[in-house]
């Protein structure tokens, strides 16, 4: 029997009020401001922007505050907000070669034009808790040195000159957009890169790690990792020319992968690519490894049944908002569904029992 | 750029586009019903109804085909500023606007695919008259409805392709009526 | 074609500068330089987004990376000049100030605004960039060759 029920408004309202109170916590402790989140929890802000697929540090900071630091909930808020905005257009592809690099390292060449620039990295810290920070965060003075003028060329350019690495020729086909049209299989590289750029960091990291451990191995070197600001330029139809409409900080990773050659391709180095909003090299490197694993078909490699090679598996499970939406919905009322399951189990039970009785009688 | 080509848009975009959308939806839901649409002041030769329609339905994601007379500098500049819709040929458009003759031939437009029947074009037909005429039947019509149409055969062919096909909106001055692909022209 | 490009280079440069200015900065500089003229909206300030694209392998086919927030508006001042603004972020007041500067840059006030609004803005942004670049340069690794015991 189906009985429609209604109710819970009062309970929901009270739950929201309590949530707000818990969010604020002890009022004897100073309230967290958005500027504090933006400045001091910058890497959280960056992750929310990258996976929320919307670059706006103020909005990301608000989302983090509202979600009590639950980053996936914050990403959800950003995604929801994003859908309400009219889109004015698409930028020209950003030129990461012209990036003002805060950090730029290569694991493949020690001496390269532009040098190894460490930037503000955790890499060489001892990973020991710094109890001084718990007391008061005094900031040491940052050293400065005269910077070299000019652009820092991409590392892959050097290998390109020798013809030892696959080319990535320029092409201006308008890319498909996952936020406008559903993902279709087989997905081309542009769709895959968009999906990976907004994919869950943890899921991408796990998949990338699996390729390193042998599931679809494609021995990767970080050819180059760079973090810095690039201008965003867009054509303005009513003006008839393009102007810079802003600037974003990006993390870019280009991997150089060993490749023995295939039926269609000569032995050479192949490439994986990662590009992410904000500063997130773990995500950018992971993205590059997974991008490379997904390229098995176009490079004529064998499908080894590895999860990271399976575009359908990767792309349909990488989005943490889709995943959390479907996963968490099962905690919401399913009274009617469950009622029918219950009826079914009871019926099967009755049938099994009566069958046994009949068997015993015979 | 002249500021005249930049005027004539919605003065209150949120409200006017919502009202216009409501009228267009009603027209589509009740084929043959005439609705009024006059919030925009487009440059000639676009009618007020067609101009309002375009401002409401088009943006940078909706490729638009301008057929015949409406493909002029004034209209191009006005649409570029107010909608940013990319101008394309009939084969790649989501919306097309022009007179019936200028819009021909109909087989040039996308009619959708069986997976995505919605990936088809909507034709905005600028008409010199809009009133009673052919008999319409189908979803959204109680018994029959009457609407003046430029011809009959083309719409019967279009109806036969359902669920694929084109949708039509006829505009005349500040009035419009719609003929979705589901409507039968008797 | 070359002339066409040059014709817009100047305006491109100032619009780009205005787009990247910090919150409230253009308003402050504008109000310090000139009394704001009366204007009519052609398009009231509107908040939206722009899809940012990258290229696979930095140089290959484009893909959609994610969006940025953008505020735009257009207005006309008494002289008939039309000012456009497309700026990063969600500040309608900043968009209005940027569009006013764009319109006024097409009038006799251009040189005055160049000196009092655009130049200070350019210098501030360049200074901020130079400081960051200098900090990055200080973290550049200097390698030393160690003696190798090969023989």
UniProtKB/TrEMBL annotation, chain A:
Domain of life of the organism encoding this protein: Bacteria
InterPro entries the UniProt entry points to: PhnI (IPR008773)
An annotated GO BP: organic phosphonate metabolic process
Species for this entry: Marivivens niveibacter
Keyword Lyase: yes
Species lineage: Bacteria, Pseudomonadati, Pseudomonadota, Alphaproteobacteria, Rhodobacterales
Protein name listed in UniProt: Carbon-phosphorus lyase complex subunit PhnI
Keywords: Lyase
GO molecular function, one term: lyase activity
Pfam families for the chain: PhnI (PF05861)
TrEMBL record, chain B:
InterPro entries: PhnH-like_sp, Phosphonate_metab_PhnH
Pfam families found in the cross-reference section: PhnH
Keyword terms, alphabetized: Lyase
One Gene Ontology term of the molecular function aspect: lyase activity
Family matches, as Gene3D superfamilies: Bacterial phosphonate metabolism protein PhnH (3.40.50.11310)
Tagged with keyword Lyase: yes
Swiss-Prot/TrEMBL GO biological process terms: organic phosphonate metabolic process
Tagged with keyword Cell membrane: no
Lineage top rank: taxon: Bacteria
Protein's name according to its UniProt entry: Phosphonate C-P lyase system protein PhnH
Species for this entry: Marivivens niveibacter
From TrEMBL, chain C:
Transmembrane segments: none
GO molecular function: lyase activity
GO biological process: one example: organic phosphonate metabolic process
One Pfam family it belongs to: PhnG
Keyword Lyase recorded: yes
Record carries keyword Lyase: yes
UniProt KW keywords: Lyase
The protein's name: Phosphonate C-P lyase system protein PhnG
Species the sequence originates in: Marivivens niveibacter
């Amino acid at each position: 029997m189906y009985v429609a029920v209604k109710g819970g408004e009062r309970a929901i309202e009270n739950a929201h009020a309590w949530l707000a109170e818990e969010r604020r916590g002890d009022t004897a402790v100073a309230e967290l401001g958005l500027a504090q989140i933006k400045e001091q929890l910058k890497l959280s802000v960056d992750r929310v922007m990258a996976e929320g697929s919307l670059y706006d540090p103020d909005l990301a900071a608000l989302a983090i505050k509202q979600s009590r630091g639950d980053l996936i909930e914050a990403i959800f808020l950003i995604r929801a907000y994003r859908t309400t905005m009219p889109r004015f257009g698409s930028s020209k592809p950003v030129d990461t070669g012209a990036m003002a690099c805060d950090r730029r390292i290569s694991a493949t060449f020690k001496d390269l034009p532009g040098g190894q620039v460490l930037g503000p990295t955790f890499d060489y810290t001892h990973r020991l808790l710094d109890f001084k920070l718990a007391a008061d965060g005094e900031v040491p003075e940052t050293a400065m040195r005269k910077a070299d003028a000019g652009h820092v060329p991409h590392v892959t350019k050097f290998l390109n000159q020798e013809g030892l690495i696959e080319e990535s020729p320029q092409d201006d086909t308008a890319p498909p957009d996952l936020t406008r049209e559903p993902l279709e299989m087989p997905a081309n590289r542009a769709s895959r890169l968009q999906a990976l750029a907004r994919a869950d960091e943890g899921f991408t990291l796990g998949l990338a790690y699996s390729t390193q451990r042998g599931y679809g191995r494609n021995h990767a070197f970080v050819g180059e990792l760079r973090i810095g600001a690039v201008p965003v330029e867009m054509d303005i139809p009513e003006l008839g020319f393009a102007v810079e409409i802003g600037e974003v900080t990006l993390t870019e990773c280009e991997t150089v992968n060993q490749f023995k050659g295939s039926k269609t391709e000569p032995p050479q180095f192949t490439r994986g690519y990662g590009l992410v909003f904000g500063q997130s090299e773990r995500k950018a490197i992971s993205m590059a490894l997974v991008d490379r694993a997904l390229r098995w078909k176009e490079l004529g490699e064998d499908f080894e049944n590895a999860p990271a090679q399976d575009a359908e598996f990767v792309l349909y499970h990488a989005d943490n908002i889709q995943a959390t939406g479907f996963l968490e919905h099962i905690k919401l009322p399913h009274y009617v569904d469950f009622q029918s399951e219950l009826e079914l189990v009871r019926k099967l039970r009755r049938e099994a029992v009566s069958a046994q009785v009949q068997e015993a009688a015979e | 750029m002249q500021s005249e080509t930049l005027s004539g848009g919605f003065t209150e975009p949120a409200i006017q586009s919502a009202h216009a959308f409501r009228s267009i939806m009603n027209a589509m839901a009740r084929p043959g019903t005439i609705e009024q649409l006059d919030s925009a002041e487009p440059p000639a030769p676009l009618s007020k109804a067609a101009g309002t329609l375009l401002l409401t339905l088009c943006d940078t994601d909706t490729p638009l085909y301008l057929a015949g007379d409406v493909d002029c500098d004034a209209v191009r500049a006005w649409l570029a500023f107010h909608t940013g819709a990319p101008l394309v040929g009939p084969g790649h458009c989501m919306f097309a606007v022009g007179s019936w003759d200028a819009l021909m031939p109909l087989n040039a437009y996308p009619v959708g695919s069986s997976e995505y029947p919605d990936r088809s074009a909507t034709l905005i037909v600028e008409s010199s008259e809009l009133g009673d005429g052919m008999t319409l039947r189908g979803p959204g019509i109680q018994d029959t409805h009457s609407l003046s149409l430029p011809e009959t055969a083309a719409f019967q062919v279009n109806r036969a392709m359902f669920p694929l096909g084109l949708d039509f909106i006829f505009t005349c001055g500040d009035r419009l009526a719609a003929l979705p692909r589901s409507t039968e022209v008797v | 074609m070359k002339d066409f490009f040059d014709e817009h280079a100047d305006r491109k440069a100032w619009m780009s500068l205005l787009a990247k200015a910090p919150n409230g900065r253009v308003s402050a500089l504008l109000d310090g330089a000139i009394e704001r003229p009366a204007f009519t909206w052609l398009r009231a300030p509107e908040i939206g987004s722009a899809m940012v694209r990258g290229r696979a392998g930095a140089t290959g086919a484009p893909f959609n990376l994610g969006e940025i927030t953008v505020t735009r508006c257009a207005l006309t001042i008494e002289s008939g000049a039309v000012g456009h603004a497309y700026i990063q972020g969600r500040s309608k007041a900043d968009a209005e100030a940027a569009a006013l500067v764009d319109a006024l840059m097409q009038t006799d006030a251009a040189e005055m605004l160049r000196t009092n609004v655009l130049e200070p803005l350019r210098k501030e942004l360049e200074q901020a960039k130079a400081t960051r670049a200098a900090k990055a340069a200080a973290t550049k690794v200097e390698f030393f060759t160690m003696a190798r015991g090969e023989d």
